[in-house]
TrEMBL record:
UniProt-recorded name of the protein: TonB-linked SusC/RagA family outer membrane protein
Signal peptide start and end residues: 1-22
Source domain of life: Bacteria
Cited InterPro entries: Beta-barrel_TonB, Beta-barrel_TonB_sf, Plug_dom, Plug_dom_sf, TonB-dep_OMP_SusC/RagA, TonB-dep_OMP_SusC/RagA_CS, TonB-dep_rcpt-like
Organism, as annotated: Chryseobacterium geocarposphaerae
Length: 992
């Protein structure tokens, strides 16, 4: 386009958008994103960014595919201010906990997640667990398994863009489901191909290794400071000429590796060695169990369009072999979409996607015998990993495993190859829409969406496993579907300088899910896993999950001279989860945008755009079904039932969230620098609280009520700049920073000023709500201190034990930040991104246990002390109340077991600040002169990496610690966390 040509192009987007094409073309040369861009908002309505009175961010397809994550949510980490993706470190599927602007509900951790919407169809981000807690040692039960969910199955190759609607204002038209914000996914459609067929082929291979290990010590071996008759520390597997057996302990407070010879375990004898063997460490006896994981993915798509029809078809196959042996998954994704003009006024659109995730084995997580994390904690420095490899004792295949040091510690290869957890999940997501243009002012949209899933899980436990001596088998069937229907009438018109548009609609959403469980408790024949081979069978009658929400909503937009924009929304929901008297609830929102640079004629080469925006919204939030009446549950005794322990509330009201938000957007220096800042406050009232204690005389222990208020305040900042941009070289830098402060303003009167325990993990960490405190506050027992801050010990040399719990810290950081860089040097593109957080804490069960057992390097302190005694640094309180220096020595093993005991949350809790090199990529696009000769549109090769480097003081695997407790991802607690992967991969992209 010639510079002197100034042609006005009017884009019909609700009748509001008019853009100077010449200016837009120039902006595209200077920046990758301008304030005039179109974004997808609630209900799939497309809006111009400048018209919005609230904060949104958009991630394009190229950014999602830059480092090829198995789960698309990983590509968002660190790139959107206020967004947090949290996983439990529980295996390859990485089910995410997705929150925007912090937690706002006391109901449960799951009730704080953002809504995921695909092409206008809300997804179900709820997971179904195994019904078991993360901490289960000694319980004789099983463990949680990360089986993934609908959201984790979405194929990143099919995503066109992701728009993040952060606050209730942005998501107000989604009602209850959008109260915590929404993430809008638009899939690819094949539009804009000018009648030409285009075939895309995207292939990548990636390889995983463990990013970070705990600091294991390999200077001392198994034992508990036992001495022989000569007064020397010794070791003996079983009783021997050297003394009594010391080989039955899991502790590593034994002799130092110093060239001695002891009677040890001999795998050839399946017992004590005939001769003394060299006392030596096996430094690869934990790390050597893990392998280099791999992922291979191939995607092919065909797309085309003309003036009437556009279509796209895509097929993807992904194969993952995870870092733990015999674990991983296969995933098939197929997608088809077509848009067609049936007549000049009637348009139709169909989108269908199919996903199948299949795995023969996924790892269990948590602290119990079946978890590989449990084995890693209990593995001793002097034990060779190879001793476990045969799995079964000779002649006892499928009956008795090799676990020579404790019957409570299962063989790691038995865990990997025999204790399998399989899944076969199939899902279909689809929507059909019809749009009829009545005249130039009116159109009608009818859209219907459906989500269907069918899932089969099995769990196998062989003979001689610690918790199932006679074996165990389970089949779990999960079926569900979700229907969403919308009918919307849209109007647009122009009255002089005023553009007006309006939308009014009705919607309905119905969700149903059913879970069936069958158990074989004990197996008649070892190694035969079927329900017919059960010694005893159990069956859980499926609990229904049915919920329906009907809605009416409206949206009114005013646009004055493309300078002032005003949005007004209103919605009314009727939820089946609430009682008839309170089933209907109404909520509105108002948002406004002022283009100050145009209003005050401030545009120049240095100031291209200055926008002020402000919004207010109220959003209702209902609850899960079956909270209104008491229902009997099936008892473990045949033919009998049990009364519920929680008294239902037939008078529940909806929770209400009120949000105020304001911010500014700037575009400077010919759009080479854009910056925006947002401040917000959100108040959540009438919290639906489920665990309020009642008198036992009522026959119940808990009840459900409405009470309490939570306030969230925060600031978000984002910057994008092109310091250099010319034909052969450009540098783009993006940064974001966000903080959120949460405060509990009120609690139910029933607590009489006492804290409300929202949840607990492992029976030691409690998430207590206290007026003036914050969600995420972690309570537990800790140390006692003298007035001058010294640790108090008792006369026995052990730490003084408090009678009251105290606040240890908060699971959420003070702030988060991300930084992305991209350099283009002719045909090369180099990009990398960092992100991190400041403060926040996490409790580590693994740290407690490995410290208690002397497995970590920090337990080397005091090993050379005379007689193996150590004196704790601190004071002892005297009878008169004064304090004197502690001088009482106690055995090393006793000291570490006491000071870092499981209940001492304080000494096992650590700062989770970190900085990660989240991803990096180098790509080369072959020049057009070559690709045209090959009849290709594009040919690009790349090398990429994820989680390549990390700085943190957190002592275990990953500071982004969370626990999978049944199906809930709980931040701030590490129980049986599995290693995080460092990934390096190669990518090939061909278009023709």
């Amino acid at each position: 386009m010639r510079k002197e040509t100034q042609k006005l192009l009017v884009l019909s987007l609700l009748g509001l958008v008019s853009v100077n094409l010449a200016a837009q073309e120039k902006a595209k040369k200077d920046t990758i994103r301008s304030i005039d861009e179109v974004v997808v908002t609630a209900l799939g309505i497309k809006r111009q960014d400048r018209s919005l009175g609230y904060s949104t961010e958009t991630i394009k397809s190229d950014e999602l595919l830059r480092t090829q994550n198995n789960n698309w949510t990983g590509a968002l980490e660190g790139k959107v201010a206020g967004l947090k993706i949290q996983t439990a470190g529980a295996g390859p599927l990485s089910t995410p906990r997705i929150t925007l602007r912090g937690d706002v509900s006391m109901s449960s951790m799951d009730d704080n997640q953002a809504l995921i919407v695909v092409d206008g169809v809300p997804m179900n981000n709820r997971s179904v667990g195994t019904g078991t807690p993360a901490y289960g040692a000694g319980s004789g039960g099983d463990l949680p398994i990360d089986y993934g969910n609908e959201v984790s199955s979405i194929n990143p190759d099919d995503i066109e863009s992701i728009t993040v609607l952060k606050g209730p204002t942005a998501a107000a038209l989604y009602g209850s489901r959008g109260a915590k914000g929404a993430i809008m996914i638009t899939t690819k459609s094949g539009k804009g191909k000018d009648g030409k067929f285009q075939v895309n082929f995207n292939s990548y291979s990636s390889y995983d290794t463990v990013l970070k290990w705990p600091d294991y010590q390999y200077e001392y071996g198994q034992g508990t400071l036992t001495k022989n008759t000569a007064g020397q520390f010794y070791y003996s597997y079983g009783a021997s000429a050297d003394g009594v057996s010391t080989g039955g302990t899991s502790s590593a407070f034994g002799p130092k590796f110093d060239g001695q010879y002891f009677f040890q375990y001999d795998p050839n004898e399946n017992g004590q060695s005939k001769e003394r063997q060299l006392w030596r460490p096996y430094k690869d006896n934990i790390k050597g169990f893990w392998r280099t994981g791999s992922t291979y993915s191939n995607n092919i798509s065909i797309e085309s369009s003309n003036d009437k029809t556009s279509f796209r078809s895509s097929l993807t196959y992904l194969k993952n072999e995870w870092m733990m042996p015999n674990t991983g998954f296969d995933r098939w994704n197929a997608q088809f979409s077509v848009d067609h003009k049936l007549t000049s006024k009637l348009k139709s659109s169909i989108k269908l996607s199919y996903a199948q995730t299949k795995s023969d084995n996924l790892p269990a997580t948590g602290y119990n015998n079946q978890s590989i994390s449990y084995f890693m904690i209990f593995q001793n420095p002097n034990v060779d990993l190879a001793w476990y490899k045969p799995i079964w004792k000779p002649g006892q295949e499928n009956v008795d495993q090799i676990h020579p040091f404790s019957s409570f510690i299962d063989n790691p290869y038995l865990i990997a190859y025999e204790m399998t957890n399989s899944v076969n999940r199939k899902g279909i997501t689809g929507n059909v829409s019809l749009n009829y243009q009545v005249d130039k002012h009116f159109d009608v949209l009818l859209r219907s969406g459906m989500i269907w899933n069918d899932e089969l899980r099995t769990q196998r436990r062989p003979y001689s496993s610690a918790n199932y001596l006679k074996g165990y088998y389970r089949e779990q069937y999960i079926n569900g579907f979700n229907f969403n229907n919308d009918l919307m009438v849209n109007y647009k018109n122009k009255f002089g300088n005023l553009n007006v548009s309006a939308s009014a609609g009705a919607g309905s959403q119905y969700e149903e899910q059913k879970t069936q469980d069958y158990f074989a408790i004990g197996l008649k024949n070892p190694g035969v896993y079927s329900l017919t081979n059960a010694i005893a069978q159990d069956f859980k009658i499926p609990k229904p999950y049915d919920k329906m929400v009907n809605s009416l909503y409206g949206l009114l937009n005013f646009n004055y001279q493309e300078k002032v924009f005003l949005d007004i929304t209103a919605r009314n929901d009727w939820s089946s989860a609430l009682p008839k008297a309170n089933r209907s609830y109404f909520y509105p929102s108002v948002a406004s945008s002022f283009i100050l640079s145009d209003i005050f004629s401030l545009r120049s080469n240095n100031l291209n755009m200055w926008k002020f925006r402000a919004s207010w919204a109220k959003v209702g939030n209902d609850t899960t079904p079956y909270q209104l009446a008491n229902y009997y549950s099936v008892s473990s005794f045949p033919g009998s039932v049990e009364i519920p322990s929680t008294y239902a509330n037939p008078n529940l009201r909806p929770e209400m969230i009120t949000n105020i938000e304001a911010g500014m957007d700037f575009s400077l220096f010919k759009n080479r620098l854009t910056y925006n800042i947002t401040a917000y406050q959100s108040n959540s009232k009438d919290q639906i609280i489920r665990n309020v204690p009642v008198l036992w005389e009522t026959g119940y222990s808990l009840k459900v009520i409405n009470a309490g208020e939570i306030r969230n305040r925060g600031i978000e900042m984002m910057l994008n700049a092109y310091p250099i941009k010319n034909k052969n070289f450009s540098w783009n830098i993006s940064a974001n920073w966000s903080m959120n402060r949460n405060k509990i303003l009120s609690l139910p009167e029933e607590f009489n000023g006492e804290p409300y325990t929202m949840g607990s993990v492992g029976g030691v960490v409690y998430y207590n709500a206290v007026v003036g405190g914050s969600l995420g506050d972690m309570y537990g027992y800790g140390l006692m201190y003298s007035p001058d801050g010294q640790v108090i010990f008792g006369s026995d040399g052990l730490t003084a034990k408090p009678t009251q719990m105290k606040k240890i810290g908060n699971a959420f950081p003070l702030w988060r930040a991300g930084l992305q860089n991209e350099f283009k040097i002719k045909n090369f593109t180099i990009s990398f991104s960092f992100d991190g957080q400041y403060k926040g804490v996490a409790y580590s069960q693994s740290h407690h246990k490995m410290t208690e057992q002397g497995k970590l390097k920090h337990t080397l302190v005091g090993r050379e002390n005379p007689d193996g005694l150590i004196i704790g640094t601190g004071v002892v309180q005297n009878a008169d109340g004064s304090f004197s220096t502690n001088v009482k020595g106690i055995p090393l093993s006793t000291y570490y077991a006491d000071y870092y005991r499981r209940a001492n949350v304080e000494t096992n809790t650590f700062d989770t600040s970190f900085v990660k090199l989240r991803d990096a990529r180098i790509s080369y696009s072959f020049p057009k002169s070559l690709t045209q000769n090959l009849k290709l549109t594009d040919l690009t090769i790349a090398i990429f990496g994820r989680n390549l480097w990390m700085w943190t003081k957190f002592p275990l695997f990953d500071p982004e610690a969370a626990t999978l407790d049944n199906a809930t991802v709980t931040p701030g607690v590490e129980i049986g966390q599995l290693p995080t992967a460092r990934t390096v991969g190669f990518q090939l992209n061909v278009k023709f």
